[in-house]
Design brief:
The chain is about 50% helix and about 10% strand. By secondary structure, the chain is an alpha/beta fold. The strands form 3 sheets. Strands 3-7-5-6-4 form a 5-stranded mixed beta sheet. A two-stranded antiparallel sheet has the order 1-2. The chain has a two-stranded antiparallel ribbon with strand order 8-9. Helix 2 (about 55-65) packs across helix 3, helix 6 (about 145-150) crosses helix 7 and helix 7 (about 155-165) crosses helix 9.
């Protein structure tokens, strides 16, 4: 026959023998302590900055009725305790006007705290998108995208997209947070260097305009599958290397335009390669005494249309380059 007392002794024995692992190190089982809420302080370095007030209010009402069901994790700091995990529960407990809160006190190395906070936050469902992107970018200083994906239970492509999103300038992040800008459009803007993003932002003006942003993205990106030059050519522009290996090829940034879709996001480089390709073609044509090449004619037509707004009137510009 098992009595309540014997069951209690077994539980105490189990708790005493239990071990936890922190960064691969065995530590004794942690005990829950009810600490004075006045001694608990939020961490100013906490990566999560956004808390939904409505959800906090709902959690507060639950705490009034049932208490805090899951203890928060804190670390000792002088006479106080700094929150490592559970700031949302702490805030809701404050709203519920509770005097104590269940805590687990842990000791961390200084460089461990932020990583623990980031991973804990990222495993939640209600993380604000730009904060999530910044947090993943922080982890990328230590882990590869596949390693981050495994730790967070996310796909590799998701992690790469969030890494790209972390490069979005603050002016556009504001529109993401307000819900005016979709994540896919934000990732499209984040493909470009900060200076170019700033130019896009200033061109758009104060009011958010998704159609205008889409047009600007389309005008600044190039479908590499339609490029006139060989995208695997490493020597066309040696400093740039091959497009298929380039970090500015969207296919190398997490399939941002679809599975394996190659899109160049560095217009200056694309135009340089295109010009170099046609100059090489002209030289080859001159040596072979070719009078006119349709590809070159179309190239100059496109170039003049861009600069003047109309098609060139004479093909003499083309034909004068060749040997008769």
């Amino acid at each position: 026959m098992t009595t309540k007392a014997s069951t209690s002794r077994k539980r105490r024995s189990t708790n005493a023998a239990a071990k936890n692992e922190v960064n691969g190190k065995k530590v004794p089982a942690l005990q829950i302590q009810y600490l004075d809420i006045g001694k608990i302080k939020p961490d100013p370095e906490q990566p999560r900055k956004t808390f939904d007030e409505k959800l906090l209010s709902q959690l507060s009402e639950s705490i009034k009725s049932h208490g805090v069901l899951q203890p928060i994790t804190v670390r000792k700091s002088g006479r106080d305790f700094i929150i490592v995990m559970g700031e949302r529960r702490y805030r809701a407990t404050m709203l519920a006007k509770k005097k104590t809160i269940p805590c687990i006190v842990r000791t961390y190395e200084n460089n461990e705290v932020l990583e623990v906070q980031i991973i804990e936050n990222l495993q939640r469902q209600d993380v604000e998108t730009t904060e999530e992107a910044d947090a993943i970018a922080y982890l990328s200083n230590k882990y590869s995208p596949p390693e981050i994906a495994k730790r967070l239970g996310r796909t590799d492509n998701f992690i790469r997209q969030r890494l790209k999103l972390s490069g979005l300038i603050d002016g556009f992040k504001h529109f993401v947070r307000s819900g005016e800008m979709t994540i896919s459009l934000a990732v499209g803007v984040a493909l470009f260097e900060p200076e170019e993003q700033q130019m896009m932002l200033e061109t758009m003006g104060e009011e958010f305009n998704a159609h205008q942003i889409n047009r600007m993205i389309n005008n600044r990106t190039y479908d590499l599958e339609k490029a006139p030059f060989d995208v695997s050519d490493k020597i066309l522009v040696p400093k740039a290397g091959a497009c298929i290996e380039c970090p500015f090829n969207a296919a190398n940034q997490g399939n941002l335009f679809g599975e394996g879709k190659m899109v160049c996001t560095k217009s200056a480089c694309f135009e340089t390669k295109k010009s170099k390709y046609f100059l090489n073609l002209i030289e080859k044509s001159k040596k072979e005494s070719v009078l006119l090449i349709p590809e070159i004619r179309q190239y100059w037509a496109d170039e003049e249309k861009k600069s003047t707004g109309h098609f060139p009137s004479g093909k003499q510009r083309i034909e004068s380059l060749f040997v008769g």
